[in-house]
# Entry
Amino acid sequence: MSGFTFIRNALKYDFPIRECVESMLPLVDELVINVGKSEDETDELIEKLRALSPKIRIVRSVWDDGKTDRGLVLSEQTNIALDACEGRWALYLQADEALHEDEHAAIRAAVEAADRESDPPEGLRLRYLHFYGGYSLVQRPWNWYPSEIRVVRRASGARSYGDAQTFRGAPDHRELRTRLLDAHVFHYGHARAPELMQRKIRYFHRFWHGDEHGIDVAGAYDLEWENLVWYWGTHPKPYAARVEAGRAWSPAPASAAKESGWDDVLIYASTAREPLARALEKLIREHRPKARVWIARPREAGLPRELDPSHAAFVDLEAEERGLFRLAAKWLQLRRGYRVTLADVPTGALSGFRARLYDRVSWSCHQTADQGFQVPSHERAKQLGRWLGIDC
# Structure
């Protein structure tokens, strides 16, 4: 299996190409890097990488800066690297993408299994983790693609398509026959310090709209909490230094919590969700030992006598289970005066209207749940804790 990628101006725009390459190398038999003529020391950086591994081959190109339509120059550069590959299968990552070493074996096994089939798929899709604002949050809306083709069978004639997000069959641009793997691409394109991110956004707009696009990028990196999920796992080892440096500007749970803090917590949970309620209760007591925690059942009337909603958080573990009328009625009854209201939504079955009845929503999957990421069930209590401002 070959690996392939392309890069230009890596240092000028802080593309983590070294981390990308190091995350691929153990998995592939060769790695082709298409290095575009750059305005910085990208050449020297890639040469240093080649000196560390005989697997790396370099091809060189000069970008056509006159191509500023639909990002087509990006697929053109991708295909230059693909054409230089020699393996029967080719694994593709962009310079701001990486693979986790814990999933290398699964990816390799899937490729080897497909290679033995009489009618193998033309491509393999990986689930995506789109980090945003730093290294602690991922995007969940449908338009942040849940999965994408990142391994292609070279005999299929697959070509990078459009702005290089995906691959299509040549010459008719047909969709490839693909298979979804339970492995992830870590996409760090929006995990940059704010000032670097604005510079990168401004640069990349030129590939769609030309140099004089005049697009305001000042608010392009704002956090929309309703679209975000706390990342629950570890990062690829090559990213260790970047993740550590990014702690200074990556969003923390305290920044997502409502400005006014809470002293106590009321957890609304049925018997079926008691294990999650108890896990959250334990977490709260560990991190906020002075907080009082109550667990209320859906059919119980009234509130604990000692509870003062004006100093408490309300956590609803039943938000997905109620129809709209019951949701609104219960919300109106319980919402009065709480410092913060939080809904747990494990399957994504909560409409935008219903989600707006809460200050925060703890989503546990990509909006396209069957194609994208899933938060492990054992991490849900920590997810809820983070939305309450607990750094856990």
Q: What stands out?
A: The chain has a mean pLDDT of 91. The chain has two domains: 2-209, 253-387. The CA atoms of residues 310 and 338 lie 5 Å apart. The first strand starts at residue 2 and ends at 7.
